[in-house]
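dumping this here so i dont lose it
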């Protein structure tokens, strides 16, 4: 009998420069039933951005009304300017259709999602060492050394949150790291706590003998 159930919410966090986006993209490229979560924001659309594909665009008043109605798994006010949030309805709709949903988010947001959605699977992505994280930040060549040092200091604090995650993956070789993510998804699908329909079916078969 094939095990069927709703999709999984995969929450992915980790310091800047460890390759979270690369792993997420590779995972989706290899699995057609995995999607990225679409966030809601109050900032204006940029050229080429499509409503419902890149973001759900809302006014500040609309966003705050959604907050009041409890429609976000998590949200944040960035630099005292725009709001960003993860809409519960989009995630739940995709999960109900059998899609796994990736939510790439910082550690603070991940802890909020963990509280709001206990069935979420939290994965922390890291490099083999803190020195490697710093090397990758420098190697990107997109920031000043002052900015790199700030991100590195933030990375130290983020790594301290690993015990609050379900899994940790070292992104040393991309293919290996993606395979580990796939293994986590497969293991989670086999959890007894996620297999109520299967258990009921088995019990019915046993009882019908």
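and the seq i came up w/
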């Amino acid at each position: 009998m094939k095990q069927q159930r709703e999709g999984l919410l995969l929450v992915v966090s980790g310091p800047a420069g460890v390759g979270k986006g690369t792993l997420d993209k590779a995972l989706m490229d290899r699995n057609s039933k995995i999607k990225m979560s679409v966030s809601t924001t109050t900032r204006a659309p940029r050229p080429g951005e499509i409503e419902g594909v890149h973001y759900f665009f809302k006014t500040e008043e609309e966003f705050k009304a959604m907050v009041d109605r409890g429609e976000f798994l998590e949200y944040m006010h960035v630099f005292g300017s725009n709001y960003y949030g993860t809409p519960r309805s989009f995630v739940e709709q995709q999960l109900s259709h059998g899609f796994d949903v990736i939510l790439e988010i910082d550690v603070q947001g991940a802890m909020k999602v963990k509280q709001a959605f206990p069935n979420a699977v939290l994965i922390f992505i890291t490099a083999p060492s803190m020195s490697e994280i710093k090397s990758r930040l420098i190697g990107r060549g997109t920031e000043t050394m002052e900015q790199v040092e700030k991100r590195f200091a933030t990375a130290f604090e983020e790594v301290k949150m690993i015990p609050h995650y379900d899994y940790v993956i070292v992104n040393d070789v991309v293919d290996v790291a993606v395979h580990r993510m796939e293994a986590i998804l497969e293991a989670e699908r086999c959890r007894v706590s996620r297999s109520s329909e299967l258990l009921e079916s088995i019990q019915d078969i046993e009882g019908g003998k």
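Residues 19 and 171 are 7 Å apart (CA to CA).
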